[in-house]
Every structure is written in structure tokens, then in C-alpha cells.
Amino acid sequence: xxxxxxxxxxxxxxxxxxxxxxxxxxxxxxxxxxxxxxxxxxxxxxxxxxxxxxxxxxxxxxxxxxxxxxxxxxxxxxxxxxxxxxxxxxxxxxxxxxxxxxxxxxxxxxxxxxxxxxxxxxxxxxxxxxxxxxxxxxxxxxxxxxxxxxxxxxxxxxxxxxxxxxxxxxxxxxxxxxxxxxxxxxxxxxxxxxxxxxxxxxxxxxxxxxxxxxxxxxxxxxxxxxxxxxxxxxxxxxxxxxxxxxxxxxxxxxxxxxxxxxxxxxxxxxxxxxxxxxxxxxxxxxxxxxxxxxxxxxxxxxxxxxxxxxxxxxxxxxxxxxxxxxxxxxxxxxxxxxxxxxxxxxxxxxxxxxxxxxxxxxxxxxxxxxxxxxxxxxxxxxxxxxxxxxxxxxxxxxxxxxxxxxxxxxxxxxxxxxxxxxxxxxxxxxxxxxxxxxxxxxxxxxxxxxxxxxxxxxxxxxxxxxxxxxxxxxxxxxxxxxxxxxxxxxxxxxxxxxxxxxxxxxxxxxxxxxxxxxxxxxxxxxxxxxxxxxxxxxxxxxxxxxxxxxxxxxxxxxxxxxxxxxxxxxxxxxxxxxxxxxxxxxxxxxxxxxxxxxxxxxxxxxxxxxxxxxxxx
Length: 617
Prior knowledge:
The chain is an alpha+beta fold and 617 residues long.
């Protein structure tokens, strides 16, 4: 064993010596390499492309001071997808910074820290292959959050419920507004991912919408605004009948405001929306006030009865009437109130008269003459005759329907010079004065007498103030009827199942006026009693004569306009029998006439009373 030990020692000596020598050389080289890099970064180490080989700490820091331009570049763009607004920011603005000290320290410690094998490996690979090191950056989360919060302040807006405020007659509508909230967590994650990878990027922000409690979409908001604050609404007649027809009517804004009603209506998603509408009853009441102005009574066709053919001959065609259709107009208003069309037509219904241009005598029951009377106006002035003729023309050819009440004033119309009347003498109160329309009562009196003998019920009749000689011929006293529109009228009712046609004829040469009634005879007979005079009062004496200055008369002339007459209570009785001889009507027409003095009109330079100037008959 001793020999074996000697032989092994001989053979191992050389390798051991070689290995020891190699190790010694390696240690010398490593020690020398380390000595060369004492206080310096090992060869082959780079950061972000900057070679830090053999640099001391100060030199490395200087070299790396501009090595990471990404941080200061405007490389990050934040975009609001709804509005398109953008915010340009650098990574530094978002809190990213380059820690040069730590980066240089990491570079310097490469090959110096850790196990021997790690140290030797790092030294060798750095020298032989090169070793790139990542720069060390620091993300200031507080700065990142602050930057994103600043963006959120511009984006975020609270949800605002739609609101309607009433201040007196003024209504203010505030539309709803959808809220917007920036999703900070999502935006932060996107930003961090971009920053840590040192990338330029456009980050689309996530903005969440929040709906208000009371939400009105755009269409509803526009509708509400149109109802509340739209242009004024005007109502008009689509087809005016004449230049005097109802003109455009503007609905006052304050009136419309009083009609507005608002309700909050729940939706399926738990929110509410406004329902704005007009109170129909108030709108209807406002519309009704124009019904009378719009109403036009239909006008029957006018005829005369041809005694030979026993047919009706058309004098003037019928005219349709109209009336306001409140419901339809209201519906049209409700339909247009939400639109920009602020002109609403008054909807009218056409009224067709019962007596049209196509009516026949048989259809209307106008087949024979049932009553005819004539009055006389001997000695009347030309002005009075003209008024009689003019006013009588208003009644020619009119047709009174079964059950209809005839009104003299309705057909008489207005009395003025523009209507073709001349100035004459009229009785007003207890005096005779110059005026328009003297002689109209001749027409009403003739109508009264014709109605009297036709047996129709008379619903209104007034006598004159005093006995007029004009009516002494014919039926005599107590058979006159005066009118004075609109207070004093003459009325009767057609109480038959047939229409009544009224004709009249003015006879200038005979100074008479005749009225004829055509219908179907009901077999009625009429008896007249009287006239009976009572309470007679003598005519006023001459000293009570009335003298009135008329500056239009010729100088030095006198004209007698009234003749003294006694006063009296005059009663005329009427009994109407039907076809069976039964009494239908029994009545007395009582006329209380006052005594009337002579009346004279005189011109300038007349010293009254001067009877010598009164013309003799």
C-alpha cells in the first residue's frame, strides 16, 4: 500500500500542479479585470442603447440623462368617443419618470452582487455577449389619478331631470340631460398598460351614461317646447264668405299657458317622462266664444207662385249656412299643437237650408193662395213711398217653414241711406221727426192684416202711438202694426204642416201695397169683431199744435206733418175656426192711441204760429 501511495502521488502531482496553475491564472485574470473596473461599470453593459462600459457612476448618469425621450414626448392621446374631444399628454404628465440613479446602480451592480457563479457569469456574458439592461421607471399613481381626474372633471356631468316651472302665466321648460361619468378604473388600466410598454397610443376612454329620474328624449323635448314656447297659434276661416268675415284670431300665449297640464309618466325601466297636454275643456270654452261670429244662418231660396202653372218660380237661389264644429276644431288644434304649423283652421259644418233652389211646390206644400190683404198710402211723400217700396222688397219670395216663427225685423234688415232708404218723417216717442225709414210700418201693417186673416197665431204686435189716417182705408183703426228694430217687432208662427210663401206687390199708381200668402189651406175661417172705440179723448186744441224748425225747408214756408186726431182705446177681436168649426184662437188686439196734435215744420224767417203759410189741401 505504501508503494501504491507513492505511485498515485507521482501520477497526480502533475495534474494537480496544472490545475492549480490554471486556477491561479484565472484568479489573476479575474482580479485584474475587477481591478480595471473598480468603481466602473463592467464592459458590455448597455441601457436603452447607451453603452455604459467602464463608466463611473457620474459618467453613466450623464450619459443616461437624455436616453429615454419617450417620457417627455406627447405620446399619449385620450379621446372622448361621444364628443371626439382629445387630451394630449406625455407619459410624464401621467406620472411616469426615469429613475437614473437606480438604473445606473443596477448597471454598476451587474457582476458584483449575488453568488460567485452568478457574479462570474454576469461578468463574462457582459464582456463576451454584451448585456442590455432595461431602464428603471417609476409610475406615480397619485399623479396618474390626478391627471385622469382632471379629464373626468371636463367629461363628467350630472344627470338632470326634465322640469317644468310655472311662474304666473309663464311656463319654463328645462329639458332632461343624460349624465356622463368617466370610468376611471378602466382608463387607468389602459394607461398603465400603455406606459409600461413604452408605447405611443390613442386611448379611447370609457364614459358611462346615467339617466335622470325624469327623462325626456329629444322628440318629446321638442314636442313640449313646441306646446309651451312655440310661435303664437292663429285660427282662421279657410273659405271666408265675404270681406267682413271673421279675421284671423290669435290665441294669446297667456291663455294657452293656462291650458297646459303636465304629468310624469312611469316607464318600464323605472324612469319617468313628461306628458304635456292641453286641458280640452278650457280650450273648448275658448273656442265656443267664436261660434256666434262664425255662424251664418242658411238662406232659403226665394220664389213666387205662378198662378197659371201652379208651380214655384225661382227668384233667388238658396245660400248654405255654416256653424262652428267645436269638436273638430279642437281635435285639429290638438293635432297641430305639437308641430311647427301654428295656423289652425276653424272647422265649420255646412248648413243646407230646408228650402233649396230645387224645391218644388208639391214638396213644400205651396199650392194655393190662402190669404191676401192690401193697404193704401194715399198722400204719402215720395220719401215715404220709396221706403215702402224698398222695405217691401225684403219680404218678396220668402218661405216660412212649418213651426217656424216669422220675425219682421229679421227680414227687414238694417235701414240706412246706404241700404237705399231716403230721409222722411218717422214717429219717435211722442213726436214726428225727420229720419230714415218712414213708411216701413206700412209694410208691417200689411203683413199683420194678411196674417190676421190667414189665422196664424200672432206672438208679437205693437200699435202706433196715435191713430194714423193711412190705415183708415181697408181694415180701419186697430189693425196697424208698428216696428222699430231691434226693440219693437212683429212676429207670428206658421202652425201648419206646410211651408208658407210670402209675396208682395207695390202699386205706385194705385198707391197701395198688397201681400199674398201661398200654402195649403187648412180650411180655417176667421171672424173679425170691431173695431170698438172706448175711452175717447178729443184731439188737442189748436193752441197745442207743435211747430218745429226745419232749416232745410225753403225760407218763409210751412209744411204740415201731423193732423190732430182723437185718442181712444180701440179693440179688434179675432176668432179662428178650424175646418171642423172648432175655435182655435180667440183673442182681442187692444190698441191704446193717445190724442195727437197738429204738427208743422217751418223754414227760416217764419214767425210761428202762422197758419196763413200752411198750404191748403
